[in-house]
Amino acid sequence: MTRPYRCFSDHVLLTIRLTPNGGRDILESVEVTADGHAHLRARVSAVPEKGKANKALIALLGKSLKCPKSAITLASGDTARQKILRIDGDPEDLAKRLDSLMSI
User: Fold this and answer.
1) Nearest Cα to 31, choosing from 88, 92, 82?
2) What is the pTM of this model?
3) Average of pLDDT values for 91-96?
């Protein structure tokens, strides 16, 4: 399975495709694009204005991974649907959590 994240020495970079104003907050599934890159699909009910959808995404991911919101930052894609999030912490532990989250 192609994974939507990459591990580094002290963090993980996670690629997400966000749908704001999506009716509910949920992490959906992993998709692979035609060029072979994977991303995790997510929806949030927040509107895409003044960073509300990004904040909702960080809160959803923090809750789902059981890690503090302060450990998650937006690395790129502030106004785009395709985002890269940096999650600070033990990369092996985070990879296990992400893998179990994506197998649900």
Assistant:
1) 82
2) 0.92
3) 96
